[in-house]
Amino acid sequence: MIAYPPRVADIDPSDNERRASRLAAAGAVGASVAHELRNALAVAESALFLAQRDLDDRPRLVRHLDQVGAEIRKAHHVIGSVLGLARGEPVRREPAPVRRLIDTARHAVVLPSNVAFEVAIEPAELTVLCDPILVERVFSNLYLNAVEALEGQPQAAIVTRAWLGDARTYLEVEDNGPGLDPGIVDRVFEPLATSKAQGTGLGCALSRAILEAHGGEITATTGRRGGVAFRMWLPNG
Fold this sequence. Notes:
Elements: H1 13-53, H2 58-87, E1 94-97, H3 98-107, E2 115-122, E3 127-130, H4 132-149, E4 156-164, E5 168-175, H5 203-213, E6 217-222, E7 228-235
Helix pairs in contact: 1-2, 1-5, 3-4, 4-5
């Protein structure tokens, strides 16, 4: 029996929307992790150079080679997370200290001297079940957005808060910049929606895809300091 393709009228529009969303998420993830893969390759290349220099010093040689191996494993994890998210596969989850997620994301972004960076976590040892590589991407994207919004502003600040609820862990990234652009306020999480001349509009779309893949949510609103506040939650357990 010949299997004919479904007629256009038989295709569920929601299926097309889900496919489009996954493709947009794949593009967003790819754009956001490209720099991290380059960094991993640069670190591995540097470690190999040092390993060649220290061939006669076995302890140092082993440390350099261990670093190469760690960077290769990290690159594999990044690629696996990208492909899994694009395919709509369940995300890998492990207990991750929120402080470590924030610190790793913070150091992936160049923070100008005019920007103060504040963190408040309650309790201090708060952990979340997540794919650390992907959730780090959420924080680094939000920090990059904030840095761009705060360009040239004196006494600029980025504040990250995290606290434990009964069934959810709440996360918030807020800046004291000019706030949401009225032109995209209703489309801030749509792929390619941006008010920046050099922006891609993929960072917020990626963040939403990651949070939703974890069963959580992200919203954008005006913060207590007049800037943008991105508020998120992840389920506990």
